[in-house]
Amino acid sequence: MSSPALDVAAVRADFPLLAESVNGAPLAYLDSAATSQKPRVVLDAERDFLERSNAAVHRGAHTLAAEATELYEDARAAVAGFVGADADDLVWTHGATEGLNLVAYAIGNATAGRGLPESARFALQPGDELVVTEAEHHANIVPWQELAARTGAVLRVIRIRDDGSLDLDHAAEVIGSRTRVVAFTHVSNVLGIVNPVAEIVALAQPVGALTVLDACQSAPHVPLDLPGLGVDLAVFSGHKMQGPYGIGGLYGRREVLQALPPFLTGGSMITRVTFERTEFLPPPQRFEAGTQPVSQAIALAAAVRYLDGLGMDAVHAHEKELERRLRTGLGAIDGVRLLGAADGAERVALQSFVVDGVHAHDVGQFLDSRGVAVRVGHHCAAPVHARLGVTASVRASAALYNTADEVDRMLDAVSGVRAFFGVSGSAEDQEVHHACDALSDRRESK
Questions:
Q1: Rounded to whole angstroms, what are the CA distances from 40 to 43, 46, 269?
Q2: Which of 164, 252, 305, 338 sits CB 3.0–4.6 Å from 257 for a disulfide?
Q3: What whole-number distance in Å separates Cα of residue 153 and Cα of residue 155?
Q4: Cα–Cα distance, 439 to 230 (Å, whole number)
Protein backbone atom coordinates (compact mmCIF):
# COMPACT_ATOMS: atom_id res chain seq x y z
CA MET A 1 0.00 0.00 0.00
CA SER A 2 1.49 3.34 -1.05
CA SER A 3 1.95 6.19 1.39
CA PRO A 4 -0.31 9.25 1.16
CA ALA A 5 1.12 12.29 -0.58
CA LEU A 6 3.55 14.29 1.50
CA ASP A 7 2.07 17.32 3.28
CA VAL A 8 5.05 19.57 2.66
CA ALA A 9 3.64 22.53 4.59
CA ALA A 10 3.23 20.34 7.67
CA VAL A 11 6.72 18.90 7.20
CA ARG A 12 8.26 22.37 6.96
CA ALA A 13 6.62 23.36 10.21
CA ASP A 14 8.61 20.59 11.90
CA PHE A 15 11.95 22.20 10.97
CA PRO A 16 12.63 25.37 12.97
CA LEU A 17 15.53 26.65 10.89
CA LEU A 18 13.48 26.79 7.69
CA ALA A 19 11.56 29.78 9.07
CA GLU A 20 14.74 31.88 9.07
CA SER A 21 15.63 34.61 6.57
CA VAL A 22 19.03 35.07 4.93
CA ASN A 23 20.21 38.38 3.50
CA GLY A 24 16.72 39.78 3.81
CA ALA A 25 15.06 36.93 1.89
CA PRO A 26 13.28 33.77 3.08
CA LEU A 27 15.76 30.92 3.27
CA ALA A 28 15.64 28.43 0.41
CA TYR A 29 17.87 25.68 1.76
CA LEU A 30 19.11 23.59 -1.19
CA ASP A 31 22.23 22.11 0.40
CA SER A 32 20.88 18.96 2.05
CA ALA A 33 23.47 16.76 0.31
CA ALA A 34 26.05 18.50 2.51
CA THR A 35 23.97 18.35 5.68
CA SER A 36 20.25 18.15 6.27
CA GLN A 37 18.10 20.23 8.58
CA LYS A 38 16.75 18.58 11.74
CA PRO A 39 13.11 18.34 12.84
CA ARG A 40 12.09 19.22 16.38
CA VAL A 41 11.55 15.58 17.28
CA VAL A 42 15.25 14.93 16.67
CA LEU A 43 16.38 17.97 18.64
CA ASP A 44 13.99 17.05 21.46
CA ALA A 45 15.03 13.38 21.53
CA GLU A 46 18.67 14.16 22.21
CA ARG A 47 17.90 16.81 24.80
CA ASP A 48 15.31 14.60 26.51
CA PHE A 49 17.79 11.76 26.87
CA LEU A 50 20.45 14.03 28.33
CA GLU A 51 18.00 15.60 30.78
CA ARG A 52 16.16 12.44 31.87
CA SER A 53 18.14 9.26 31.11
CA ASN A 54 21.81 10.11 30.73
CA ALA A 55 24.12 7.34 31.95
CA ALA A 56 26.91 5.15 30.61
CA VAL A 57 25.55 2.24 28.58
CA HIS A 58 26.62 -1.41 28.83
CA ARG A 59 28.46 -0.65 32.08
CA GLY A 60 26.45 0.20 35.16
CA ALA A 61 24.01 -2.04 37.01
CA HIS A 62 21.90 0.81 38.39
CA THR A 63 18.45 1.70 37.10
CA LEU A 64 19.48 4.75 35.07
CA ALA A 65 22.27 2.82 33.33
CA ALA A 66 19.87 0.02 32.44
CA GLU A 67 17.38 2.54 31.04
CA ALA A 68 20.07 4.26 28.97
CA THR A 69 21.28 0.92 27.61
CA GLU A 70 17.76 -0.07 26.61
CA LEU A 71 17.18 3.24 24.80
CA TYR A 72 20.55 2.93 23.06
CA GLU A 73 19.90 -0.59 21.79
CA ASP A 74 16.31 0.28 20.84
CA ALA A 75 17.83 3.04 18.70
CA ARG A 76 20.10 0.50 17.00
CA ALA A 77 17.12 -1.68 16.18
CA ALA A 78 15.16 1.28 14.76
CA VAL A 79 17.98 2.52 12.54
CA ALA A 80 18.86 -0.99 11.38
CA GLY A 81 15.23 -1.61 10.50
CA PHE A 82 15.14 1.60 8.47
CA VAL A 83 17.76 0.16 6.10
CA GLY A 84 16.23 -3.33 6.15
CA ALA A 85 18.75 -4.89 8.51
CA ASP A 86 18.76 -6.65 11.89
CA ALA A 87 20.10 -4.84 14.94
CA ASP A 88 23.15 -7.10 15.23
CA ASP A 89 24.18 -6.16 11.69
CA LEU A 90 24.51 -2.43 12.44
CA VAL A 91 27.69 -0.94 13.89
CA TRP A 92 27.53 2.61 15.23
CA THR A 93 30.22 4.88 13.82
CA HIS A 94 30.85 8.60 14.05
CA GLY A 95 29.91 8.94 10.39
CA ALA A 96 30.28 7.30 7.00
CA THR A 97 33.93 8.35 6.70
CA GLU A 98 34.79 6.50 9.88
CA GLY A 99 32.81 3.49 8.65
CA LEU A 100 34.83 3.30 5.43
CA ASN A 101 38.08 3.72 7.33
CA LEU A 102 36.98 1.04 9.78
CA VAL A 103 36.60 -1.47 6.95
CA ALA A 104 39.87 -0.47 5.26
CA TYR A 105 41.88 -0.63 8.49
CA ALA A 106 40.23 -3.91 9.52
CA ILE A 107 41.35 -5.43 6.22
CA GLY A 108 44.81 -4.00 6.86
CA ASN A 109 44.86 -5.62 10.30
CA ALA A 110 43.89 -8.93 8.73
CA THR A 111 46.71 -8.53 6.23
CA ALA A 112 49.14 -7.93 9.09
CA GLY A 113 48.01 -11.15 10.77
CA ARG A 114 46.12 -9.39 13.53
CA GLY A 115 42.63 -10.31 14.64
CA LEU A 116 40.77 -13.59 14.57
CA PRO A 117 41.67 -16.84 12.80
CA GLU A 118 38.80 -16.30 10.37
CA SER A 119 40.12 -12.82 9.55
CA ALA A 120 42.75 -14.36 7.28
CA ARG A 121 40.19 -14.47 4.49
CA PHE A 122 40.54 -10.68 4.16
CA ALA A 123 44.35 -10.64 4.00
CA LEU A 124 45.73 -8.88 0.92
CA GLN A 125 48.72 -9.92 -1.14
CA PRO A 126 50.90 -7.58 -3.21
CA GLY A 127 49.18 -7.13 -6.56
CA ASP A 128 45.68 -7.73 -5.21
CA GLU A 129 43.27 -5.10 -6.47
CA LEU A 130 40.96 -2.62 -4.73
CA VAL A 131 38.36 -1.13 -7.08
CA VAL A 132 36.55 2.20 -6.85
CA THR A 133 34.76 4.37 -9.43
CA GLU A 134 35.51 7.79 -10.86
CA ALA A 135 32.37 9.12 -9.17
CA GLU A 136 33.47 8.57 -5.57
CA HIS A 137 33.60 10.99 -2.67
CA HIS A 138 37.13 11.36 -1.30
CA ALA A 139 36.08 9.31 1.74
CA ASN A 140 35.64 6.32 -0.58
CA ILE A 141 38.95 6.85 -2.35
CA VAL A 142 41.58 7.87 0.20
CA PRO A 143 41.11 4.96 2.69
CA TRP A 144 41.62 2.49 -0.18
CA GLN A 145 44.64 4.40 -1.46
CA GLU A 146 46.14 4.20 2.01
CA LEU A 147 45.32 0.51 2.32
CA ALA A 148 46.99 -0.14 -1.05
CA ALA A 149 50.09 1.77 0.07
CA ARG A 150 50.32 -0.27 3.29
CA THR A 151 49.79 -3.68 1.70
CA GLY A 152 51.14 -3.56 -1.85
CA ALA A 153 47.67 -3.83 -3.31
CA VAL A 154 46.74 -1.87 -6.44
CA LEU A 155 43.95 0.70 -6.69
CA ARG A 156 41.94 0.42 -9.90
CA VAL A 157 39.20 2.76 -11.12
CA ILE A 158 35.99 2.10 -13.05
CA ARG A 159 35.35 4.90 -15.54
CA ILE A 160 32.22 6.95 -15.91
CA ARG A 161 30.93 7.98 -19.31
CA ASP A 162 30.73 11.57 -20.50
CA ASP A 163 27.10 11.70 -19.36
CA GLY A 164 28.04 10.63 -15.82
CA SER A 165 26.72 7.10 -15.99
CA LEU A 166 28.91 4.24 -14.83
CA ASP A 167 30.66 2.37 -17.64
CA LEU A 168 29.59 -1.19 -16.87
CA ASP A 169 31.59 -2.57 -19.80
CA HIS A 170 34.70 -1.10 -18.24
CA ALA A 171 33.61 -2.40 -14.83
CA ALA A 172 33.53 -5.92 -16.30
CA GLU A 173 37.11 -5.42 -17.55
CA VAL A 174 38.40 -4.02 -14.25
CA ILE A 175 36.77 -6.48 -11.84
CA GLY A 176 38.64 -9.75 -12.12
CA SER A 177 40.40 -12.59 -10.35
CA ARG A 178 42.71 -10.26 -8.35
CA THR A 179 39.86 -7.99 -7.17
CA ARG A 180 39.41 -8.16 -3.40
CA VAL A 181 37.23 -5.09 -2.72
CA VAL A 182 34.79 -3.14 -4.87
CA ALA A 183 33.84 0.12 -3.12
CA PHE A 184 31.30 2.33 -4.86
CA THR A 185 28.69 4.96 -4.22
CA HIS A 186 24.98 4.24 -4.39
CA VAL A 187 24.28 7.83 -5.44
CA SER A 188 27.01 10.21 -6.59
CA ASN A 189 27.13 13.35 -4.46
CA VAL A 190 28.04 15.32 -7.61
CA LEU A 191 25.93 13.69 -10.31
CA GLY A 192 22.83 12.59 -8.39
CA ILE A 193 22.70 9.39 -10.44
CA VAL A 194 21.66 6.15 -8.73
CA ASN A 195 24.24 3.54 -9.67
CA PRO A 196 23.25 0.00 -10.77
CA VAL A 197 24.09 -1.84 -7.56
CA ALA A 198 22.83 -5.24 -8.72
CA GLU A 199 25.04 -5.22 -11.80
CA ILE A 200 28.15 -4.31 -9.82
CA VAL A 201 27.44 -6.92 -7.16
CA ALA A 202 26.93 -9.49 -9.93
CA LEU A 203 30.45 -8.73 -11.23
CA ALA A 204 32.06 -8.80 -7.77
CA GLN A 205 30.49 -11.89 -6.24
CA PRO A 206 31.84 -14.53 -8.65
CA VAL A 207 35.43 -13.43 -7.96
CA GLY A 208 34.87 -13.33 -4.19
CA ALA A 209 35.34 -9.58 -3.85
CA LEU A 210 33.86 -7.68 -0.91
CA THR A 211 31.33 -5.06 -1.97
CA VAL A 212 31.31 -1.84 0.06
CA LEU A 213 28.50 0.64 -0.63
CA ASP A 214 28.47 4.35 0.21
CA ALA A 215 24.77 4.97 0.87
CA CYS A 216 25.08 8.53 2.23
CA GLN A 217 23.10 10.11 -0.60
CA SER A 218 20.50 7.35 -0.90
CA ALA A 219 19.50 6.63 2.70
CA PRO A 220 17.60 9.93 3.19
CA HIS A 221 15.85 9.85 -0.17
CA VAL A 222 14.80 6.37 -1.29
CA PRO A 223 13.37 3.31 0.47
CA LEU A 224 16.49 1.33 1.31
CA ASP A 225 16.97 -2.41 1.83
CA LEU A 226 20.69 -3.00 2.20
CA PRO A 227 20.48 -6.79 2.62
CA GLY A 228 18.23 -6.89 -0.43
CA LEU A 229 20.82 -5.03 -2.48
CA GLY A 230 23.23 -7.89 -1.86
CA VAL A 231 26.19 -5.79 -0.75
CA ASP A 232 28.53 -7.07 1.94
CA LEU A 233 28.99 -3.76 3.74
CA ALA A 234 27.46 -0.29 3.54
CA VAL A 235 27.82 3.03 5.30
CA PHE A 236 25.54 6.01 5.85
CA SER A 237 25.70 9.27 7.77
CA GLY A 238 23.17 10.55 10.31
CA HIS A 239 23.51 14.26 9.65
CA LYS A 240 22.49 13.80 6.00
CA MET A 241 19.25 12.04 6.96
CA GLN A 242 17.70 14.54 9.38
CA GLY A 243 19.76 13.19 12.27
CA PRO A 244 22.50 14.76 14.42
CA TYR A 245 26.18 15.17 13.73
CA GLY A 246 28.69 12.63 15.02
CA ILE A 247 26.71 9.47 14.27
CA GLY A 248 26.55 7.08 11.34
CA GLY A 249 26.13 3.43 10.61
CA LEU A 250 28.08 0.55 9.13
CA TYR A 251 25.86 -2.27 7.92
CA GLY A 252 27.47 -5.64 7.37
CA ARG A 253 26.35 -9.11 6.47
CA ARG A 254 26.58 -11.19 9.63
CA GLU A 255 29.28 -13.56 8.43
CA VAL A 256 31.42 -10.65 7.17
CA LEU A 257 31.22 -8.70 10.43
CA GLN A 258 31.97 -11.84 12.43
CA ALA A 259 35.17 -12.44 10.47
CA LEU A 260 36.47 -8.84 10.35
CA PRO A 261 39.08 -7.98 12.98
CA PRO A 262 38.57 -4.84 15.07
CA PHE A 263 39.80 -1.42 14.03
CA LEU A 264 39.79 0.54 17.31
CA THR A 265 40.46 -1.26 20.57
CA GLY A 266 39.89 -0.50 24.22
CA GLY A 267 36.92 -0.67 26.52
CA SER A 268 33.42 -1.81 25.57
CA MET A 269 34.59 -4.24 22.86
CA ILE A 270 36.24 -7.00 24.88
CA THR A 271 35.21 -10.07 26.87
CA ARG A 272 38.52 -10.72 28.65
CA VAL A 273 41.82 -8.84 28.98
CA THR A 274 45.08 -10.05 30.49
CA PHE A 275 48.60 -8.80 29.87
CA GLU A 276 49.13 -11.82 27.65
CA ARG A 277 46.06 -11.64 25.39
CA THR A 278 42.66 -10.08 24.77
CA GLU A 279 39.40 -11.66 23.64
CA PHE A 280 36.93 -9.54 21.70
CA LEU A 281 33.16 -9.28 21.81
CA PRO A 282 31.17 -10.39 18.76
CA PRO A 283 29.82 -7.75 16.37
CA PRO A 284 28.55 -5.11 16.53
CA GLN A 285 30.19 -4.28 19.88
CA ARG A 286 33.56 -5.52 18.60
CA PHE A 287 33.75 -2.34 16.50
CA GLU A 288 32.51 0.12 19.13
CA ALA A 289 35.47 0.75 21.40
CA GLY A 290 35.33 3.55 23.93
CA THR A 291 32.51 5.90 24.83
CA GLN A 292 29.50 5.27 22.65
CA PRO A 293 27.58 8.05 20.81
CA VAL A 294 24.53 7.41 22.94
CA SER A 295 22.50 10.61 22.67
CA GLN A 296 23.32 10.87 18.97
CA ALA A 297 22.13 7.31 18.32
CA ILE A 298 18.87 8.03 20.12
CA ALA A 299 18.39 11.21 18.09
CA LEU A 300 19.13 9.35 14.84
CA ALA A 301 16.50 6.80 15.79
CA ALA A 302 14.06 9.70 16.20
CA ALA A 303 15.01 10.85 12.70
CA VAL A 304 14.33 7.49 11.05
CA ARG A 305 11.07 7.11 12.96
CA TYR A 306 10.11 10.55 11.67
CA LEU A 307 10.93 9.51 8.09
CA ASP A 308 9.12 6.21 8.54
CA GLY A 309 6.08 8.11 9.82
CA LEU A 310 5.99 10.21 6.65
CA GLY A 311 6.60 7.16 4.48
CA MET A 312 9.75 6.88 2.39
CA ASP A 313 7.67 6.20 -0.72
CA ALA A 314 5.98 9.58 -0.21
CA VAL A 315 9.31 11.28 0.46
CA HIS A 316 10.78 9.77 -2.69
CA ALA A 317 7.77 10.74 -4.83
CA HIS A 318 7.87 14.34 -3.61
CA GLU A 319 11.60 14.63 -4.17
CA LYS A 320 11.27 13.06 -7.62
CA GLU A 321 9.01 15.95 -8.66
CA LEU A 322 11.56 18.42 -7.33
CA GLU A 323 14.32 16.59 -9.22
CA ARG A 324 12.43 16.89 -12.51
CA ARG A 325 11.73 20.57 -11.93
CA LEU A 326 15.32 21.29 -10.96
CA ARG A 327 16.88 19.40 -13.84
CA THR A 328 14.47 20.61 -16.51
CA GLY A 329 14.68 24.20 -15.32
CA LEU A 330 18.48 24.31 -15.21
CA GLY A 331 18.72 22.62 -18.59
CA ALA A 332 16.59 25.37 -20.13
CA ILE A 333 18.85 28.23 -18.99
CA ASP A 334 21.32 29.48 -21.60
CA GLY A 335 24.94 29.05 -20.59
CA VAL A 336 24.25 26.39 -17.94
CA ARG A 337 25.91 22.99 -18.25
CA LEU A 338 24.60 20.07 -16.22
CA LEU A 339 27.06 17.55 -14.79
CA GLY A 340 25.77 14.03 -15.21
CA ALA A 341 23.38 14.56 -18.09
CA ALA A 342 22.55 10.87 -18.62
CA ASP A 343 19.04 10.59 -20.03
CA GLY A 344 16.74 8.07 -18.39
CA ALA A 345 19.00 7.53 -15.38
CA GLU A 346 17.42 7.07 -11.97
CA ARG A 347 18.24 10.09 -9.83
CA VAL A 348 17.73 11.84 -6.54
CA ALA A 349 16.96 15.56 -6.28
CA LEU A 350 20.57 16.67 -6.63
CA GLN A 351 22.07 18.50 -9.58
CA SER A 352 25.52 19.98 -10.08
CA PHE A 353 26.08 22.52 -12.81
CA VAL A 354 28.43 25.17 -14.15
CA VAL A 355 27.57 28.58 -15.54
CA ASP A 356 29.64 29.56 -18.57
CA GLY A 357 31.91 32.49 -17.83
CA VAL A 358 31.22 32.63 -14.09
CA HIS A 359 33.14 30.75 -11.41
CA ALA A 360 31.10 28.48 -9.17
CA HIS A 361 32.04 30.50 -6.07
CA ASP A 362 30.65 33.65 -7.63
CA VAL A 363 27.44 31.87 -8.61
CA GLY A 364 27.05 30.63 -5.05
CA GLN A 365 27.54 34.09 -3.58
CA PHE A 366 25.04 35.54 -6.04
CA LEU A 367 22.44 32.95 -5.02
CA ASP A 368 23.21 33.44 -1.33
CA SER A 369 22.54 37.16 -1.68
CA ARG A 370 19.01 36.14 -2.67
CA GLY A 371 18.52 33.72 0.22
CA VAL A 372 19.28 30.56 -1.76
CA ALA A 373 21.78 28.21 -0.07
CA VAL A 374 23.70 25.85 -2.38
CA ARG A 375 27.09 24.14 -2.30
CA VAL A 376 30.04 25.29 -4.41
CA GLY A 377 33.45 23.73 -4.96
CA HIS A 378 34.36 20.16 -5.84
CA HIS A 379 32.15 18.67 -3.10
CA CYS A 380 34.93 16.39 -1.79
CA ALA A 381 34.91 14.70 -5.20
CA ALA A 382 37.72 16.30 -7.19
CA PRO A 383 38.37 13.33 -9.51
CA VAL A 384 34.86 13.33 -11.01
CA HIS A 385 35.14 17.06 -11.64
CA ALA A 386 38.48 16.52 -13.36
CA ARG A 387 36.94 13.73 -15.45
CA LEU A 388 34.22 16.13 -16.63
CA GLY A 389 36.67 18.93 -17.33
CA VAL A 390 35.76 21.40 -14.59
CA THR A 391 37.48 22.53 -11.42
CA ALA A 392 34.36 23.41 -9.46
CA SER A 393 30.60 23.32 -9.76
CA VAL A 394 27.44 24.59 -8.10
CA ARG A 395 25.32 21.89 -6.47
CA ALA A 396 21.66 22.25 -5.61
CA SER A 397 20.24 19.42 -3.52
CA ALA A 398 16.65 19.18 -2.33
CA ALA A 399 15.05 17.17 0.45
CA LEU A 400 11.64 16.34 1.82
CA TYR A 401 11.06 19.85 3.17
CA ASN A 402 11.75 21.74 -0.05
CA THR A 403 9.04 23.19 -2.27
CA ALA A 404 8.60 23.81 -5.97
CA ASP A 405 8.60 27.55 -5.24
CA GLU A 406 12.06 27.27 -3.68
CA VAL A 407 13.36 25.47 -6.75
CA ASP A 408 11.81 28.17 -8.95
CA ARG A 409 13.48 30.89 -6.87
CA MET A 410 16.82 29.24 -7.45
CA LEU A 411 16.17 28.84 -11.18
CA ASP A 412 15.16 32.47 -11.47
CA ALA A 413 18.35 33.53 -9.71
CA VAL A 414 20.55 31.30 -11.87
CA SER A 415 18.96 32.72 -15.01
CA GLY A 416 20.24 36.15 -13.98
CA VAL A 417 23.81 35.19 -13.11
CA ARG A 418 25.50 35.77 -16.46
CA ALA A 419 23.85 39.13 -17.00
CA PHE A 420 24.83 40.25 -13.50
CA PHE A 421 28.48 39.40 -14.14
CA GLY A 422 28.40 40.85 -17.65
CA VAL A 423 29.17 37.56 -19.41
CA SER A 424 28.05 37.33 -23.02
CA GLY A 425 29.44 33.92 -23.83
CA SER A 426 31.81 35.15 -26.54
CA ALA A 427 35.10 33.36 -27.21
CA GLU A 428 36.96 36.28 -25.62
CA ASP A 429 34.83 36.05 -22.49
CA GLN A 430 35.45 32.32 -22.28
CA GLU A 431 39.21 32.86 -22.51
CA VAL A 432 39.03 35.34 -19.62
CA HIS A 433 36.84 32.91 -17.70
CA HIS A 434 39.34 30.06 -18.03
CA ALA A 435 42.13 32.33 -16.80
CA CYS A 436 39.99 33.27 -13.80
CA ASP A 437 39.31 29.59 -13.19
CA ALA A 438 43.01 28.90 -12.92
CA LEU A 439 43.43 31.67 -10.38
CA SER A 440 40.38 30.50 -8.45
CA ASP A 441 41.81 27.02 -7.99
CA ARG A 442 43.90 28.46 -5.18
CA ARG A 443 40.77 29.25 -3.19
CA GLU A 444 39.00 26.03 -4.07
CA SER A 445 37.13 24.57 -1.13
CA LYS A 446 36.60 20.88 -0.77
A1: 5, 10, 33
A2: 252
A3: 7
A4: 45
Instruction: Band the pLDDT of 442: cuts 50, 70, 90.
Output: very low
- 204 DSSP assignment: H
Write out the catalytic residue numbers. 380
- State yes or no: pLDDT of 444 exceeds 60: no
Residue 141 has pLDDT above 50, yes or no: yes
Q: Which residues contact 396 (CB under 8 A, 6 or more apart)?
A: 30, 31, 326, 330, 350, 351, 352, 353, 374, 407, 410
The string of DSSP codes covering 134-153 is: TT--GGGTHHHHHHHHHHT-
CB count, 10 Å around CB of 5? 10
| Nearest-angstrom CA–CA distance, 167 and 199 | 11
SS3 content of the chain, % helix, strand, coil (to 5): 45, 15, 40
pLDDT in tens, 368-405: 999 999 999 999 999 999 999 999 999 999 999 999 99
Domain extent listing, the chain = 8-30+311-443, 46-308
Give the rounded distance of the alpha carbon of 173 from its chain centre.
27
Quickly list H helices, 4-130. 8-13, 40-52, 63-82, 96-111
Which fold would CATH assign to domain 8-30+311-443? Aspartate Aminotransferase, domain 1 (3.90.1150)
Helix (H, G, I), strand (E, B) or coil at 223: coil
| pTM, to two decimals | 0.93
Residue ranges with strand state E in 254-405: 270-273, 278-280, 336-339, 350-355, 372-373, 375-377, 393-397
In 3-state terms, what secondary structure has residue 230? Answer: coil
Q: What is the CATH number of domain 46-308?
A: 3.40.640.10
Q: Residue 302: what residue type?
A: A
CA–CA separation, 407 and 397 (whole Å)? 10
